[in-house]
Amino acid sequence: QVQLVESGGGLVQPGGSLRLSCAASNIILSRHDMGWYRQAPGKQRELVARITTRGSTNYADSVKGRFTISRDNAKNTLYLQMNSLKPEDTAVYYCNAQRTADYWGQGTQVTVFS
Q1: CA-CA distance, 6 to 104, in Å (whole number)?
Q2: Could you count the other beta carbons within 10 Å of the beta carbon of residue 24?
Q3: pLDDT at 4 over 90
Q4: Element (H, E) at 49
Q5: For an engineered disulfide with 48, which of 36, 56, 61, 95 has Cβ 3.0 to 4.6 Å away?
Q6: Which of 90, 4, 72, 51 shows the shortest CA–CA distance to 82?
Q7: What is the CA radius of gyration of the chain?
């Protein structure tokens, strides 16, 4: 059974940083296009950042220059480094893996508050 387990969320003040991790089991992340999505209360889930099997990355305009997606193939783990956090970044963040199927983690809460 494929498992994606996110961690690293928490409470942080504006301007702070967090690093999210997504540890994978029974799936090889390097063979999948990977993404971080987020969903704020009352809003649709949206793509935050994506990294392809070839290592190409793309980001939502709202996080460009502040967030960095990366993958450690040896650890089979996906990361999202989030800097200069803003209150509008508050959401549940989900890890996603895509190939022939779509896999999701359970999410980790990020709350940015003054």
Answers
A1: 10
A2: 23
A3: yes
A4: strand 46-51
A5: 36
A6: 90
A7: 13
HSE-CB of 76 using CA atoms within 13 angstroms: 12
Nearest one of 50, 3, 53 to 31, comparing CA atoms: 53
- Cα–Cα separations (whole angstroms), residue 71 to 20, 39, 44, 87, 104: 11, 22, 25, 26, 16
Please state the length of the chain. 114
Separation of alpha carbons 93 and 5, rounded Å: 11
Confidence of residue 114 (pLDDT cuts 50, 70, 90): confident
Within 10 angstroms of residue 107's Cβ, the number of other Cβ atoms is 18
Residue 111 pLDDT exceeds 90: yes
